[in-house]
Amino acid sequence: MSIAENIEKVKANLPENVRLVAVSKTKPAELLLEAYDCGQRSFGENKVQEMVWKFDELPKDIEWHFIGHLQTNKIKYIAPFVHLIHGVDSFKLLKSIDAEAKKVGRIIPCLLQFHIAEEETKFGLSMQEATEMLNSAEFKVLGNVKISGVMGMATYTDDENQIRKEFANLKKNFEKLKSEFFTANFDFKEISMGMSGDYLIAIAEGSTMVRIGSTIFGERNYSLKP
Ligand SMILES: *Cc1c(COP(=O)(O)O)cnc(C)c1O
C-alpha cells in the first residue's frame, strides 16, 4: 500500500468534523512530501529538533503539530511556526510557551493534556490541576497562548472497553471545562484523541482530531520510549 492509499483509507473512516494529523516522527522528508502531494497539510512531530529541520526543508503551508513532551528550554525553537501544541501538561510549561510566543509576537494555540490512561508513564494533568490553573490570576494574564481544547492518550491495551472508558473520561473533562471556563469561547473546541490502534473508538467517543502515524507511514523502526 502507498502512503496515498493509506491516507485515503483512513480518511474514509473520518467524519467531516474530525481532522487528521499525520504523525511523521522518525520518517524522512520524502515520505512527508508524498503525503503532502495528496493534500495532507497537518503533520505531527514529537521531537523539537526533528520538527525544526522538517519545517526548514518542507513547504511552508504545512501546519506543524507538536505532540510530544515539550521541554521548556526548547520552546523557543518551535515558537515562530508551530501550529498547535498538543501536550501542555503543566502550568509551568504553559507560562513558558506564553513567554516565548510573546517574544515572537504570536498567540500559540495549545491543548491541555490529561492523564487518562492507567500507565503511570503517560504525561498529563489531573482535573484538579487544570481547574486550579484556569482559576488562577496568573493564568488570566497570559496573553500569548490560546487554550483550544484537550488531548489524551489511552492505555496501550487490547481491552476496548478500557480504551472507550478512558476516551469517554477525556470527553467528560472537555465538557466540564467548556461549561466552567469556556462557554463563550469558541476556540475551545478540540478533543485530540485516537492513534492508529484506537482511533475508531476515539471517534465514537467524540474525538475532533486524530493523530495517526504507523497506519499511514508504516511501522517505526525503533521502540517508543515512555
Ligand atoms: C507516535 C504518536 C502517535 C501516533 O501513533 P501511531 O500508533 O503510530 O498512530 C500519536 N500520538 C502521540 C502523542 C504519539 O507520540
Q: List the helices and strands in order.
A: HEHEHEHEHEHHEHEHEH
Rg result: 17 Å
Give the strand order, joined by hyphens, for the main sheet.
Answer: 7-6-5-4-3-2-1-8
End-to-end gap: 29 Å
Runs in which pLDDT lies below 50 for 5 or more consecutive residues are none
Bin the helical content: 40-55%
- Report on the biggest sheet: 8 strands, parallel
**Which molecules are bound besides the chains?**
pyridoxal-5'-phosphate
What is the structural class? alpha/beta
CATH architecture level-2 label: Alpha-Beta Barrel
Q: Tell me the number of helical segments per DSSP (H or I, 4 or more residues long).
A: 10
Overall geometry comes to globular
**How many structural units, i.e. domains?**
1
Number of DSSP-assigned strands:
8
Q: From the 3D structure, determine the CATH topology.
A: TIM Barrel
Portion of residues in beta strands equals 15-25%
CATH H-level superfamily title: Alanine racemase
Question: According to CATH, what is the class?
Answer: Alpha Beta
Mean pLDDT value: 95
Secondary structure blueprint with pairings:
Elements: H1 3-12, E1 19-23, H2 29-37, E2 42-45, H3 48-57, E3 63-66, H4 75-78, E4 84-88, H5 91-103, E5 108-114, H6 127-135, H7 137-140, E6 145-152, H8 160-181, E7 190-192, H9 199-204, E8 209-212, H10 214-217
Parallel strand pairs: 1-2, 1-8, 2-3, 3-4, 4-5, 5-6, 6-7
Bound molecules: pyridoxal-5'-phosphate (PLP).
Describe the structure.
With 226 residues, the protein is of the alpha/beta class. The chain has a single domain (3-217), classed as Alanine racemase (TIM Barrel, Alpha-Beta Barrel), CATH 3.20.20.10. The chain is 40% helix and 18% strand. It contains 10 helices and 8 strands. The chain has helices spanning 3-12, 29-37, 48-57, 75-78, 91-103, 127-135, 137-140, 160-181, 199-204, 214-217, and strands at 19-23, 42-45, 63-66, 84-88, 108-114, 145-152, 190-192, 209-212. An 8-stranded parallel sheet has the order 7-6-5-4-3-2-1-8. Strand 2 (42-45), helix 3 and strand 3 (63-66) form a beta-alpha-beta unit. The longest helix is centred in the last third of the chain and has 22 residues, at 160-181. The mean pLDDT is 95. It binds pyridoxal-5'-phosphate. Pyridoxal-5'-phosphate binds next to strand 8 and helix 10.
